[in-house]
Amino acid sequence: MEFDKKILSFLKPDLVGKILNESSIKEFPKGTEILREQQHVKVLPIVINGLVKVYSRFDEKELLLYYIEPAQSCVMTFYAALKNTPSKVFAITEEDSKVLLIPVQLLPNWLKEYPDFNELFYNQFNLRYSELLDTIGHLLLDRMDKRLYDHLKKKLELTSSNSIIMSHNQIANELGTAREVITRVLKKLETDGKVIQNAGEIRIIGEW
């Protein structure tokens, strides 16, 4: 399958060659669960194109942790792979996605032999930690209407779409709240002229 080597441009060419020789590239339709919770990790994903969302469960509720964009990987999967522990998260494609799958048994030697390979994961840890701080700030300071508006706006930016087609229950899962809360807050955003809803489709029409 065709692969744009620019995705791995931060790595030395000989390591890129090894990765392409030893790894596989797969295409996953939108809505595919590519990693299950409590599953032992066999491959490390690097998204080539598309978008993958990573969730965790707390008290039977699902909570969106972060998105994996092109040229990014999953730090939680990376940790579980190196420690040979069951995954604490699950991942689902947000849209049709092409993913590079690296066999995890190759990681220890490559990380020692190619120090620049570590940069991918250092950068991912830094990125996710920064996002965590932002999330904590939103939880402490923002009302639910602002959180929901920002979440919808980010989703539109990541998917390069004009509208979002999701159920209120799906949005509630991503924000770790109840469907009734999302329904009520969306109605408020609609009344305030921030969004418009039509047959399951949500559009942002006003600035915050």
Overview of this structure, please?
With 208 residues, the protein is an alpha+beta fold. The chain has two domains: 5-138, Jelly Rolls; 143-204, Winged helix-like DNA-binding domain superfamily/Winged helix DNA-binding domain (Arc Repressor Mutant, subunit A). It has seven helices and eight strands; from the N terminus they run αββββαβαααβααββ. The protein has helices at 13-22, 75-83, 107-113, 117-141, 144-159, 168-175, 179-191, and strands at residues 24-28, 33-35, 43-58, 61-68, 90-103, 164-165, 195-198, 201-204. The N and C termini lie far apart (43 Å). The model has no long low-confidence stretch (mean pLDDT 88).
Task: List the SSEs and their pairings.
Blueprint: H1 13-22, E1 24-28, E2 33-35, E3 43-58, E4 61-68, H2 75-83, E5 90-103, H3 107-113, H4 117-141, H5 144-159, E6 164-165, H6 168-175, H7 179-191, E7 195-198, E8 201-204
Antiparallel strand pairs: 1-5, 2-5, 3-4, 3-5, 6-8, 7-8
